[in-house]
Amino acid sequence: MRTYVRVCNNLRMDADKQICGLDPDSQYVELAVEVFGLLADATRVRIVLALRRSDELSVNHLAESVGKSPAAVSQHLAKLRMARIVSTRQEGQRVFYRLENEHASQLVSDAIFQAEHSVANGQVPAHHHEERAEA
């Protein structure tokens, strides 16, 4: 609840309607569902994870990183690009891809962390060990 208040307090308020994306009746809920659907693919999750580690990567490098053909990766990248999750930079004949912003990366990270909790069998997941080491 605290995050909700902090985020919404930074937004302008319209006299007739609150403009907060975190309201249950927000116009963004359906778009968020589309983002989840787009990321509900193991290859796309792997692409986001690979791009998270690098500023930008070519299709061939991404294909090698995720263990798929360049053609298959290109198809996934086209969908991610249409959703503005990735953007491109062209250098001669080569196209380099990068994450458009940190949000998709954060969604994927949180999903991975949730998956760790799902299989932890009552143990503290690895990502919590990292937090303790930093403290």
TrEMBL record:
GO molecular-function terms, A-Z: DNA binding; DNA-binding transcription factor activity
Gene3D superfamilies named in the record: Winged helix-like DNA-binding domain superfamily/Winged helix DNA-binding domain
InterPro entries in alphabetical order: ArsR-like_HTH, HTH_ArsR_DNA-bd_dom, Metal_resp_trans_reg, WH-like_DNA-bd_sf, WH_DNA-bd_sf
DNA-binding is among the record's keywords: yes
Pfam name, any one: HTH_5
Keyword Transcription regulation: yes
Superkingdom of origin organism: Bacteria
Ranges where the HTH arsR-type domain occurs: 24-119
Transmembrane parts of this sequence: none
Keywords: DNA-binding, Transcription, Transcription regulation
Protein's name in the database: Metalloregulator ArsR/SmtB family transcription factor
